[in-house]
Input
Amino acid sequence: MKLDTSAIPAVAARERIDPGKLEQLVLSGSAVLMGRDEKNRIAIGKGLRTKVNVNLGTSPLSCDEAEELEKVDVARRYGGDTVSDCSTAGDIDALRRSIISRAGMPVTTIPVYQAVAAAGSFEGTTDGHILATIKKHVKDGAASVVIHAGFSLESLRSLKGSGRIMGIVSKGGSMTAAISLSQGRENPFAALFDDILALLEGTGVVLNLGNAMRSGCVHDLKDEPQLQEIHANARLAARANECGVQAVIEGLGGHVNAKDLKGWIEEHNRITGNRPLFVAGPLPTEVGLGYDHISAAIGGAMAAGYGADYLCAITPAEHLGLPNAAHVREGVVAARIAAHVGDSMKYGLGTYYEDDKLLALGRSKKDWHAQFAHAIDPDAAKSVHPDEGKECSMCGKYCAIAIMRKYGLDSTFDV
Ligand code: SF4
Output
């Protein structure tokens, strides 16, 4: 792939990877550089720390722009790597610009949302609406745009009578499908693909190839429409790379039986030629409703460990309502734990597990300050143990660490 690689040394230093190795990953399409602002640019993909995206944005039933900006702050405070503006209501343009200027990290947008909102209907959404929206998002500084170009009218029709419990559960995918079905035309993003590449070429904007056909519950197993979409997205990513446009492929989002995750991810990576794999979830169970951030973290940790590169934070409000800022915090922290556990499966305890060792050392010395300093969410830890001078109330005078110290069997770790 022909690409400006001048940013690689700085990004490689932040990613703690050899610059030559990062360049090779980026030029082969196995990793992308994401971010229009060089200070905040990151790399996502194979051989790199697993990243976490945080969704936020207004909906027609819940449109508090100040709270969406609060979610941006929460995403940054608790270690999200990117945010996605999924707004579909209010002053979408103004909010997007505020999010981009406030985030301090790469921001992804999903142009079909605003294209449909601007047109007022699926039937009335034209190529002009779609291209004008993408152009505006690129101009405003979006680091990445999501399109659902990997399915055809025929694969939509094949969903009828397919026996799925859930049909299409991707919002952008369902909106793209509705444009296609209501107008009796092929997927507009597939039809406009070359025009979209022309808009992105030379901008540094990453193309995120969305996953419309993902399964919406664990009983909806891998099927032909899903496989067709992965193959189509792999071809589109290759074409994008030929034009110097970097691509991430979204896959396996939604809901997948835990026992199928390893094989599914290996198959996905094989089909796509190891392009960066973004997953939303996957949720390995339905019955955690109200705690879907935990279900997603379990699935996300496994997915990352088996080869996914980029997780989407899922909140406790998933499937129930638009999350508030507190929900987003829980979702980000859960996803970061999942990504971190996945990294230990991929890379062992070397590069990314120094904090774990230092936290354990602090714990062995009952040094609360050291433990808070290395925790993903020190605020949560401090809220349980607010007074650093006090003993932990769990065991009191029967504290195992204190007892072992008395007999000289406490930590002998040599720093
Ligand atoms: S009191 Fe119990 S839980 Fe608390 S630090 Fe000591 S051993 Fe651990």
Notes: The two ends are 45 Å apart (CA to CA). The chain has a mean pLDDT of 95.
